[in-house]
Design a protein that fits this description.
Layout lengths: L4 E4 L35 H6 L12 E2 L13 E9 L2 E8 L3 E7 L5 E6 L2 H11 L17 E10 L2 E7 L7 H19 L17 E4 L4 E8 L3 E6 L4 E6 L7 E4 L6
Parallel strand pairs: 1-12
Antiparallel strand pairs: 2-6, 3-4, 3-7, 4-5, 5-6, 7-8, 9-10, 9-13, 10-11, 11-12
């Protein structure tokens, strides 16, 4: 006889991003990359307390749901920051309209997220990197074979100014002042579990398939009183019950197929 494991989820770790999510169906939920992780691990103190904490870098940001085309074209890139250290690669790209895309590859599985910054925050980030042309490349610590970074600022299509440097060496203050805000934003997005997770605000429907933070696929079996979701694992005899408002704490995306 197959044994059915029942797990009732009661105490999620909650991370807030000062954002009210927009209700949406499975079609606006991103497909989860193979082997993906939801976020970088929370600080140990926060894990023990299970308390809420805010990410001020994301204040006023909103979810990047659906197509982000500007007119009928892809948004133009404004800033790229890429850092490579041994087996860890981190990339943060800012596009017109405030779209920010983060791609982290390394231990723990890839993390791919996107958010839309409010206009004032976008202006602040662009202002902080606007004058990198004044930084002499010869004055910056050179990248090593196993580590390095570049900051690229675009002035038009296929036109940009770029500076490369070592990710570990002490940076000149002028460069550090430009890079630090981008590093903070990258950290905030990778730690966030709400504004950058398209599961937040998702309205579940019977038959939808979700990928869990454990990388297993679950199917929505039913929604009870519009508040509790019953989900069944497709690879193990496990059924879990999660509150609708807490789904984003446990799921990272969809398989790309609803109602299967």
């Amino acid at each position: 006889m197959i044994r059915k494991t029942l797990l009732i989820v009661l105490h999620p770790i909650i991370v807030t991003s000062l954002l009210a999510q927009t209700p949406h169906d499975i079609n606006s939920v991103d497909a989860a990359p193979l082997g993906a992780a939801m976020a970088t691990p929370l600080p140990e103190a926060q894990r023990k307390k299970l308390t809420k904490y805010d990410l001020p870098e994301l204040a006023g940001s909103r979810q990047a749901l659906g197509s982000q085309l500007v007119g009928d074209a892809l948004p133009q890139p404004l800033v790229d920051y890429v850092a490579q250290d041994a087996k860890l690669q981190q990339r943060l790209s800012i596009f017109e309209g405030g779209l920010v895309v983060v791609d982290v590859r390394g231990a723990g599985g890839p993390i791919r997220k996107k958010v839309i910054l409010p206009p004032d925050a976008l202006e602040s980030y662009l202002k902080s990197v606007a004058s990198i042309a004044s930084l002499q490349q010869s004055a910056l610590p050179s990248p090593r074979d196993d580590r390095g970074a570049f900051l690229r600022v675009y002035s038009g299509p296929h036109q940009f100014t770029e500076r490369v440097f070592d990710t570990v060496a002490a940076l000149p203050k002028a460069l550090n002042d430009r890079v630090s805000p981008l590093r903070d934003l990258l950290r905030a997005i990778t730690e966030d579990r709400a504004v950058s997770n398209t599961i937040a605000g998702y309205v579940p429907k019977e038959g939808d398939q979700l990928v869990g933070d454990d990388r297993k696929v679950y199917r929505v079996i039913r929604v009870m009183n519009n508040s509790i979701v019953e989900l069944r694992c497709l690879s193990q005899p496990t059924t879990i019950y999660v509150e609708v408002k807490d789904l984003y704490n446990y799921f990272i995306g969809t398989t790309g197929a609803a109602q299967q």
